[in-house]
């Protein structure tokens, strides 16, 4: 397989000395992202104040993200992390008797469970769908989502083993049962196509530092306009107000659309990074990225098994995102050994995650798997 994006590799300085396969944790930083961050710092160094430029950059980042997921910019809010978004949404809900069930899964990122469990004292009844052989069978949604379900909160791609869910099919089930659908897309945004309208997603969250190739400090919240208008956030602040430049301490008037969920000054430098990073993703096209990554994922699965590694999660790339998880006792230690050998992979509990992006080659994956197999002493 040729590398269709070979010409982009020089944009990522780290690739000259490392095999970077950790986009599920922190994507590689491009020179354009680094220049954008420098632009932010330089404007502070030279002009002293860069407030309006920075606000414009936040708007550009929102626009870019809206395009990436098929939404309108006014359906996007920025917060500091995906955890913040979950707390903002959860604390805006009221858990009425007969409509107080939260359905999530045991494959979601722990923050998701933590936030929902924290709502139990306010009346939430939290139900975890158990995984079965490392996936969530779609028929479980028919069983677990019931008429008293207020919100179904699931991830598009599992952080732990790369399992990808059929969001459109799940949306049909949960909406038929009268539940909202909240999708954690942190492991999918930037690597697989997302169209919130076609997938019929009500609420979506994604941060910028993984496959979106930015840095920590910023996460995007999508909420359908018609839905947002009905919500009165309890986690709030001046950025969430209709007219925040009025500085009126007595007025609490939520901004139109998703912006009402914003709180205070966002991380401007993260917005500069996000705008540049998303621009690159849009230039290449997420459809193109996704089909290349699908080939890489299948190669990772096949070659890994050939070398005696044990795949955790589905064996077909079509049921996964780019990331492949291999079983490894003491994964944290293995991650450090691989790092010493200039191969960046990511550990979680007892798995090593290999997560390429468009800038990676098949040969890099081959080298990483060879090294992992040696370290694990499998072959
Ligand atoms: C799927 C998923 N959701 C949420 C998070 C947490 O994101 P944050 O640290 O921005 O709260 C992560 C982080 O790794 C993740 O992989």
TrEMBL record:
Question: Needs which cofactor?
Answer: pyridoxal 5'-phosphate
Q: Which GO terms describe its molecular function?
A: transferase activity
Which UniProt keywords are given for this protein, alphabetically ordered? Pyridoxal phosphate, Transferase
The answer to whether the entry has keyword Transferase is yes
| InterPro entries, alphabetized | Aminotrans_V_dom (IPR000192), Aminotrans_V_PyrdxlP_BS (IPR020578), PyrdxlP-dep_Trfase (IPR015424), PyrdxlP-dep_Trfase_major (IPR015421), PyrdxlP-dep_Trfase_small (IPR015422)
Can you give the residue ranges of the Aminotransferase class V domain? 31-362
Top-level taxon of the source organism: Bacteria
Under the heading PANTHER family, the entry gives: BLR3095 PROTEIN (PTHR43586:SF15), CYSTEINE DESULFURASE (PTHR43586)
Q: Which family does it belong to?
A: Belongs to the class-V pyridoxal-phosphate-dependent aminotransferase family.
Could you identify this protein by its name? Putative acetyltransferase
Origin species, per record, is: Parageobacillus caldoxylosilyticus NBRC 107762
């Amino acid at each position: 397989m040729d590398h269709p994006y070979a010409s982009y590799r020089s944009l990522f300085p780290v690739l000259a000395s490392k095999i970077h396969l950790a986009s599920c944790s922190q994507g590689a930083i491009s020179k354009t992202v680094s220049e954008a961050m420098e632009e932010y710092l330089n404007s502070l160094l030279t002009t002293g104040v860069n407030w309006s430029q920075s606000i414009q950059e936040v708007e550009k980042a929102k626009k870019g993200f809206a395009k990436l997921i098929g939404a309108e910019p006014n359906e996007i809010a920025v917060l500091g992390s995906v955890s913040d978004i979950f707390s903002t949404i959860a604390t805006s809900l009221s858990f009425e008797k007969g409509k107080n069930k939260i359905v999530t899964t045991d494959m979601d990122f722990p923050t998701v469970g933590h936030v929902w469990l924290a709502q139990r004292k306010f009346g939430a009844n939290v139900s975890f769908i158990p995984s079965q052989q490392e996936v969530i069978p779609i028929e479980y949604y028919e069983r677990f989502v019931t008429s008293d379900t207020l919100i179904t909160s699931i991830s598009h791609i599992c952080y732990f083993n790369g399992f990808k869910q059929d969001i459109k099919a799940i949306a049909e089930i949960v909406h038929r049962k009268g539940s909202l659908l909240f999708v954690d897309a942190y492991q999918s945004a930037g690597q697989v196509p997302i169209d919130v309208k076609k997938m019929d997603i009500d609420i979506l969250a994604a941060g910028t530092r993984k496959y979106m190739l930015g840095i920590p400090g910023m996460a995007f919240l999508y909420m359908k306009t018609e839905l947002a208008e009905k919500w009165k956030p309890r986690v709030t602040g001046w950025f969430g107000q209709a007219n925040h430049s009025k500085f009126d301490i007595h007025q609490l008037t939520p901004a139109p659309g998703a912006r009402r969920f914003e709180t205070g000054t966002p991380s401007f430098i993260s917005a500069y990074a996000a705008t540049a990073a998303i621009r690159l993703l849009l230039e290449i096209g997420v459809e193109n990225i996704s089909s290349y990554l699908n080939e890489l994922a299948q190669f990772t699965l096949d070659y890994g098994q050939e070398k005696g590694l044990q795949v955790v999660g589905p064996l077909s790339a079509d049921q996964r995102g780019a990331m492949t998880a291999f079983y490894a006792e003491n994964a944290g230690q293995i991650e450090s050994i691989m790092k010493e050998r200039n191969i960046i992979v990511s550990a979680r509990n007892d798995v090593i995650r290999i997560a390429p992006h468009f800038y990676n080659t098949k040969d890099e994956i081959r080298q990483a798997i060879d090294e992992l197999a040696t370290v694990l002493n499998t072959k």
